[in-house]
Amino acid sequence: MRAAQPNFFLSFDRLGIDPFTRLFPVALRLEGTVRGTGGLDLVDADCATTVPGLYAAGDVATRELICGGFTGGGSHNAAWALSSGFWAGAAAAGFARAARPRAGGAGRVLHRAGGIFLQGPTGPAVDSRALVRAVQAEMFPTERNWVREAGALQDSLERLDALWTRLRAGGALPAGQDADAVLRAREAAALLANARWMYRSALARTETRGMHRRAEHPASDPAQRHRVLSGGLDAVWTGRQAVKQAELEAA
Length: 251
What we know:
CATH architecture of the largest domain: Up-down Bundle
Radius of gyration: 21 Å
Distance between the termini: 28 Å
Low-confidence stretches: none
Number of strands: 2
Shape: globular
Number of domains: 2
Helix content: 40-55%
Structural class: mainly alpha
Strand content: under 5%
Largest sheet: 2 strands, antiparallel
Strand order of the largest sheet: 1-2
Order of helices and strands: HHHHHHHEEH
């Protein structure tokens, strides 16, 4: 077993637990679409995204290239994490070298792209931990996210959209927060954004395919052999991207 899945035992070894002789706790964790094919869309072999200079690797990026519409096993996922990390890291380094100011030249001006939790305090204080719990309340229940149904998805989106509107209108961090608290708040906002993308994508796919299950659409639809892309912040959009025949055959 150690030879077949050595990484499985790393956590036990670090904790000093022999899983063959000692009892250990097991907890159920819903991973949503992280273990499926959700993730940032890659536009070339260097793991680049549509944002110049932004490269994705591992679970952040779509794993469709290695496992199609379903999740990969441990060894597949580990190989993808290592390989994509190598490619993305090399490409990011090359991008940084090309963008470096030349000697004697003027430095580049950087502009922040985000808005939530990066502006000055303009509205009521927001508890980022409470925000995370509110998003988890919509994403964790298996009756909402294991087998999906249009009404439940719409209900969740109404609450998630309301949270986003509140933040966008000027939600602020409590006074005196340090850099780590700002980072946690940005992560909470990103979690909220991802939840809205995920559920709108789920509504757009009116079939059951791969990791995605729709209660009112239990079968796969041959006419929906396409990717569902989503994005946007204040107004979330979804779109279809055709899959080439060669990609279908490989999957």
